[in-house]
Specification:
The complex is a heterodimer of chains A (about 260) and B (about 290). Chain A is mostly helical. Chain A is about 80% helix and about 0% strand. The radius of gyration of chain A is 22 Å and the shape is globular. The termini of chain A are close together. Chain B has about 290 residues and is an all-alpha fold. In chain B, about 80% of the residues lie in helices and about 0% in strands. Chains A and B meet through helix 1, helix 4, helix 5, helix 8 and helix 9 of A and helix 2, helix 7, helix 8, helix 11 and helix 12 of B.
Chain lengths: ~260, ~290
């Protein structure tokens, strides 16, 4: 039983509207101090009046740090996974370490990276690379082993080379895993870039704006920045989900 | 089967670790030249002097591994655990807020999952918002949460734990929704023929069936709870905790201190995940899933 797309959006949208309305009512009725919770209308006003600043922060943090870092980190994770797949020794050696690294608080290397790469976006991009590398490595290695023995045997009976098998069978089979990693990485990347900004930045960027505005009690600006971050994060994630649907249309979870 | 696999990966893992250590030592020579070159020249140059100086700098760009080990050893074993200089003290501060946040987040996550599984209107309206809640970079607004909670009079352990909680509940909810719906229709039908009530189905069928999913989620959750606690300590100028050690180290250029805090954090993370794995095995044995 599948709901029509319109109704599927309607229920959560209604829920969101109710929450925001309740927030507005609560703040106004109980006269909650501005420094604790600004009302949604205050945030909206700030958002529309400071678009240039927000845009500059968005470019600095998202376009300069998150996107390149996400691409480099995911790509290098994928390439190392290919190497691991080709050489079993490397896989047995690297995979336990990768699993361990996935559990480590990697944001902790932020101060070190800021020290090495300077205050500007390079250190933030490096942070994103480090954070996105291991999820991609672990997922891609798992994905490359996802194709069944029967299918591999079939490829062998066709006389397909390693490369052909990779391209025609194992990469497509690995796609759900790879997209899983890409989606995890999309949220990790934003967090990594913003946290790295706490350890030193030029005077622009989402993390910088948040930490300075908190210091100045400009909570409406902080919330405006959060709104932008949430919108950008959701759009990024949604784009990946759409791409995943298009690439892995054959997967059981998308079949009608 | 399992032990055989573990044994066969010991050699590759040690080789890779060894490679990492060697390249770390080599990197320590080359990356430290900026700081070390004058001292090397003063000592008369040559390879022996280069190695001597660049592996024992006070404020290196990258410390040699043994420097980090020595620092960890000094701050863990030669200082009384309740002193501010002791690493054990900072680990304890971070660990306590991690564990509190983890427990709160797990409870919230399970409660949400139970509600979502049983109330179909919630499944449709709440689930998209739970997913959207994770696109907000909570770690980035951690400073604000701590300041706001401080303004209301909540200070100390709880604000940091709330950040951990916010990060933790998500994997638990997602995993538990999957786990609670994992019993197949035949088992649910059997419960119906027993005329079991909803709560009986929950306790006797859904919860036991969800245990593997719960523990898989808990391992993810405890790791990010620790990350949350560490980041929660950064912006507030907290006096104690692993995060504040890192921040102080980065302010004063004490690289060795940052690295030793990082090593401590990694050890705690590995220990916590291992601990959850141990509880999982215990529960599985009690439930009869393992001999």
């Amino acid at each position: 039983m599948k709901l029509s797309p319109l109704r599927e959006i309607f229920a959560p949208a209604l829920f969101g509207v109710i929450v925001i309305a309740f927030w507005q009512f609560f703040v106004r009725y109980f006269e909650v101090p501005f420094v604790i919770f600004p009302a949604p209308t205050d945030i909206g006003a700030k958002l529309s009046s400071s678009i240039p600043t927000l845009y500059a922060d968005f470019v600095q943090t998202f376009i300069r740090a998150v996107i390149p870092g996400w691409i480099i980190g995911s790509l290098s994770g994928f390439l190392v996974a290919l190497l691991c797949d080709r050489y079993g020794f490397l896989r047995r050696g690297l995979l336990p370490l990768g699993n361990l690294a996935a559990a480590l608080p990697i944001v902790g290397v932020a101060p070190i990276l800021v020290m090495w790469f300077g205050f500007d976006w390079q250190s933030k991009a490096a942070m994103v690379v480090v954070m996105t590398f291991f999820p991609m490595l672990v997922n891609a290695v798992a994905g490359l082993q996802a194709s069944g023995h029967l299918e591999r045997d079939l490829m062998r009976s066709y006389g397909a080379s390693w490369f052909q098998t990779l391209l025609k069978l194992r990469l497509p089979a690995a796609m759900p895993f790879i997209f899983n990693a890409l989606k995890i990485n999309s949220t990790l990347a934003l967090i990594g870039a913003i946290v790295a900004e706490f350890f030193g930045t030029p005077i622009v960027g989402m993390g910088f704006r948040i930490s300075t505005e908190v210091g100045r009690m400009g909570l409406d600006m902080v919330w405006a920045e959060i709104t932008v971050a949430a919108l950008v994060g959701s759009a990024f994630y949604g784009l990946l989900v759409a791409l995943e649907r298009w690439v892995t249309f054959w997967h059981p979870s998308y079949r009608k | 089967m399992k032990t055989e696999r573990a044994e066969s990966s010991i050699v590759p893992v040690s080789v890779i670790v060894l490679l990492i250590l060697v390249s770390w030592y080599v990197a320590a020579i080359f990356m430290n030249t900026v700081v070390a070159q004058p001292k090397i020249d003063a000592a008369g140059g040559g390879l022996a002097n280069t190695i001597n100086v660049s592996w024992s700098l006070d404020r290196p760009v990258i410390p040699a591994p043994h420097q980090v080990v020595v620092e960890v050893w000094k701050t863990v074993f030669t200082v009384a655990p309740w002193k501010v200089k002791s690493l054990v003290y900072h680990i304890w501060v971070t660990l306590s807020s991690t564990l509190l946040g983890f427990v709160l987040g797990t409870l919230l996550g399970i409660a949400l999952a139970v509600a979502i599984v049983h109330v179909s209107i919630l499944r449709r309206s709440l689930m998209p918002w739970i997913i959207a809640s994770q696109t907000i970079p909570i770690l980035a607004i951690a400073p604000m949460i701590i300041v706001v909670l401080g303004a209301v009079g909540i200070t100390g352990l709880l604000p940091k734990s709330i950040i951990s909680m916010y990060l933790c509940f998500f994997p638990v909810t997602i995993g538990m929704v999957k786990g609670l719906t994992s019993p197949d229709p035949m088992q649910l039908d059997l419960m119906r023929t027993y005329s079991a009530s909803t709560s009986q189905v929950l306790w006797k069928l859904r919860f036991p069936a969800s245990m593997p999913f719960l523990f898989a989620s808990l391992k993810v959750a405890i790791a990010i709870a620790l990350t949350g606690a560490i980041v929660g300590e950064l912006p507030t100028g907290a006096q104690s905790g692993i995060g504040s050690r890192m921040l102080a180290g980065s302010y004063y250029g004490q690289t060795i201190q940052i690295w030793s805090a990082l090593v401590a954090a990694s050890a705690v993370a590995a220990g916590l995940v291992y601990g959850v794995g141990g509880i999982e095995r215990l529960v599985a044995t009690r439930m009869g899933a393992r001999p």
